[in-house]
Amino acid sequence: MGQARDDNTPPTIQRVGVIGGGQLAWMMAPGATALGLQLAVQTPHPEDPAAAIAQHTILAPITDVDATAVLAGQCDVITFENEFIDCDGLQPLVKQGTIFRPGLELMTLVLDKLDQRQFFQQMGLLNPRYVALEGGEAPEVLLAKAQPVGFPLVMKTRRLGYDGYGTFVVADPSQLTAVWHTSGRAPVLLEEFVPFKQELAIVAARSARGEVAIYPAVETQQVNQICRRVVAPARVSPAVMASMATLAHTLVNGLDLVGVMAVECFLTKDDQVLINEIAPRTHNSGHYTLDACVTSQFEQQLRAISDRPLGPTDLTCAQAIMVNLLGLEASGATHQERLAALKAIPQAQVYWYGKSPRPGRKLGHVTQCLGADADPAGVAAAIEGIWYGAET
Ligand code: ADP
Fold first, then answer.
1. pLDDT value at position 251?
2. Ordered structural domains, the chain, with CATH
3. Is the pLDDT score of 228 beyond 80?
């Protein structure tokens, strides 16, 4: 790992290791080139997107600590594109001098949605009402615990949930036990169903020196609990934009973040911002920054973890939309035909991650920059019409 240094001499970070080789690592490539950084990734499959752009790939599961030890020997700093890592297993590497950015304490916090909720509460931030189950409680205990939360409620597996997998809306008490059985009676959170008017997200970066850069808050819209589209900036009042920025600021400082983080929130009818969750990495809600901001979230992550100054976060256009291309029920040929039709839209930037199609899997996304008078909903609907057709 990096050489010994005194406090006045920052290390010269040139080689960045990334745990995870999916599309988030893949999209770091232009930023790494711009900053003159080398990327090495640890990812299980040679066909994973970032294996195509990394200078070096270690083929191993992201929880393989021995593989990360090898990665550490080749890199000056290690960052993450996926949070489902073995934090305890990585601790000995810290003692040996490996620099993880973000640090393992923060990565550990986000592994369990209960720990996140408790942290937000300690920080005085607004959570939906919630209770936690440890797993295996008797049906009557389950019902008693759910009462203060009320119905409808949202049941979420506390660990390893993503893209809505592990999240279930429970309409009334009669469904509670059956839904819990589908999650294997795992440890879960029961959350008040927030009747939000919008879902918002914000990406922020912080460097080891404490420099903070915050992107504009955006609106995310989910279909079946998976992000379908993003509108930037969020169409909310200046006061809500300001609360989102303050929230991001509070969190990145409170968590001592080094890197990039996304905060996902619910906006209630009376303009209260409740936190849903955080992700200490680049995020789907920030993909639009590749085309619509001075510095992309991917370059920003690399800047933050490599002790470079953070870049400006301003939008370069009045507004932008991002539409996710999720795997269709239809055959592979149809994916290619629809992809070609999207590429033919002159103003659209199409990103295709090169992953094998599976229904619901994130395969790519499209960004379009818009003028102040454009209707983001109409532009997104046109793109979705090409990709999804009659599918929802
Ligand atoms: P994941 O970590 O799997 O992405 P989330 O907690 O982000 O799970 O939930 C996915 C989606 O489910 C959210 O974007 C939102 O649309 C819906 N959802 C989650 N929690 C709630 C809640 N408490 N109230 C209403 N909707 C919710």
1. 98
2. 15-111 (3.40.50.20), 129-192 (3.30.1490.20), 198-391 (3.30.470.20)
3. yes
| pLDDT value of position 3 | 42
Alpha-carbon span 370 to 14, nearest angstrom? 36
Q: If DSSP codes are grouped into helix, strand and coil, which group holds residue 344? A: coil
pLDDT grade for 10, boundaries at 50, 70 and 90: low
Residue to mutate (ligand 1; options 154, 169, 192, 285; most atoms within 8 A of CB): 154
Residues 6+ apart with CB under 8 A from 261: 102, 203, 204, 205, 206, 248, 251, 252, 255, 278, 279, 280, 281
The pLDDT value recorded for residue 113 is: 96
What is the C-alpha to C-alpha distance for residues 270 and 275, in angstroms, rounded to an integer? Answer: 15
For ligand 1, is residue 191 a contact (CB within 6 Å)? yes
In one letter, which amino acid is 182?
A: T
State the distance from the centre of ligand 1 to the C-alpha of 8, rounded, in angstroms. 44
Nearest to residue 202, comparing CAs of 186, 189, 219, 190? 219
pLDDT at 11 over 70: no
